[in-house]
Amino acid sequence: MNHAPVPTPHNGAKSGEIAKTVLMPGDPLRAKFIAETYLENPVCFNTVRNMFGYTGTYKGKQISVMGGGMGMPSIGIYSYELYHFYDVDNIIRIGSAGGISDNVHVRDVVIGMGASTNSNFASQYELPGTFAPIASYELLEKAVNAARSQNTNVVVGNILSSDIFYDDNKNSSNLWKKMGVLCVEMEAAALYMNAARAGKNALCILTISDHLYTGESLSAEDRQVSFREMMEIALELA
Fold first, then answer.
1. Is the model's pLDDT at 180 over the cut of 90?
2. What pTM was computed for the model?
3. Does the pLDDT at position 220 exceed 80?
4. Alpha-carbon span 89 to 107, nearest angstrom
5. What domain range is 208 assigned to?
6. Quick one: which residues bind a purine D-ribonucleoside (predicted)?
7. CATH number for position 111
8. Band of the pLDDT at 221, cuts 50, 70, 90?
9. Is 10 annotated as a binding residue?
């Protein structure tokens, strides 16, 4: 296998050092936690910008985990490079989200079947209409089956990938809620679009860390280390 360096300023890995399936939390410290907690013989392949990446094995299968940062521009860069420069086939985003729907609660696991967005990310494709970013069905089906085998209840549906954390429009969440959107995060739509354009696979699995309407929330430490159900579902997709 060719181990020559791959030309990207954002990832220090060489060709062959990243598995076909990559778990991508936003927080690089969560990537480090997953590697050290779940993977056998994890090897760090990236420390550029402290966006840690590791490759190891889980139940005998090779898998990588790497941080993706906050927001669609960040995950847009890292996922594009993994798909196009490192020949990755599957990226599973695992992250936190803010609950919108009355049907989700703090610590619930949500799987994004579709990712609505207020982002302009899709404009680059110059499509004659509105693109609907959706998960790869094969990964979605595997994730639901893995959750059932673990007796983890998951909520599957439409999520919102927002470019805005501090939204000046105080009514925006109410409008998305009326359309049945389950929760809000900031990355999945770009990941789904990059996967579609590359002919690859993507899925977003989330844990509700806070709820916009009930006021419930988890601490930063809980977000980093306590999302075990979500992590263990994602690891089964290797």
1. yes
2. 0.95
3. no
4. 29
5. 21-235
6. 10, 185-187, 209-210
7. 3.40.50.1580
8. confident
9. yes
Which DSSP string do the residues of 107-163 spell out, in sequence order?
T-EEEEEEEEES--GGGGG--SS----B--HHHHHHHHHHHHHTT--EEEEEEEE-S
Residue 122 has pLDDT above 60, yes or no: yes
186 has binding-site annotation: yes
Chain centroid to CA 156: 15
Q: Tell me the pairing of strands 40-46 and 53-58.
A: antiparallel
Which one of 87, 167, 168, 210 is the catalytic residue? Answer: 210
Looking at the structure of the chain, the number of domains it has is 1
Say whether 95 counts as a known binding-site residue. Answer: yes
Q: In the prediction, which pLDDT does 226 show?
A: 59
Q: Residue 30 annotated as binding?
A: yes
What was the pLDDT predicted at 1? 46
Is 210 catalytic? The answer is: yes
Residue 209 assigned as binding residue: yes
